[in-house]
């Protein structure tokens, strides 16, 4: 009975120790599991944070690239606009130069028309004066007709006189005056001379016609 009792006590003691050992082991495993879970959670959080940071960096980099592309596009458009503006200014300058040339040509033709006298009135006036002068010469010098008759009868004398006659020197070529353009007057800050008005031209015509009538009446 004592041996059975001791065996029973030993059995109970072993069972208690085994249960306590198993409980301690389970507690330790639970702690290890909690620690590993905490570490995993921290690791996951760190990985997620790094991924978010990388994603943000990629988004920021892409945003910067888009901004740079837009800036380059704006610069290119601005440069193209400047080129177009320069071409526009060049064309405007060419148009102004052509207009100034046309205006200068019109001014020159207007001056020539204004300075050229009325041919019809002048020719009639000259013919009238030449007729009156011829009458005076015939009245004043009757011997001229006799000289003409002698020259007609003596052709050799007339030929000798023509050979001995001195050829008149050719008139110097008229120098074309320099026509100042509209731009020259603008650059020199001078007032551009106005062309002769229609009233002046009419006055000249009336004066020439009055002189012609006076000549014809005489």
Name a few traits of the molecule.
single chain; coiled coil; 218 residues; 0% strand
Description of the molecule:
- Residues 50-87 form a coiled coil.
- The chain has helices at 2-115, 119-140, 143-153, 155-164, 182-187, 198-217.
- With 218 residues, it is mainly α.
- The protein has a domain at 1-75.
- Helix 2 runs parallel beside helix 6.
- It is rod-shaped, with a radius of gyration of 62 Å.
- The protein starts with a helix and ends with a helix.
Number of β-strand runs:
0
**What is the overall shape?**
rod-shaped
| Count of individual helical segments | 6
Unreliable runs, pLDDT <50, ≥5 residues?
117-126, 134-178, 190-196
Largest sheet: none
Distance between the termini: 195 Å
Strand content is: under 5%
Region (Disordered): 109-204
Keywords: Coiled coil
Coiled coil: 50-87
Biased composition (Polar residues): 117-126
Condensed summary:
Residues 50-87 form a coiled coil. Helices cover 84% and strands 0% of the residues.
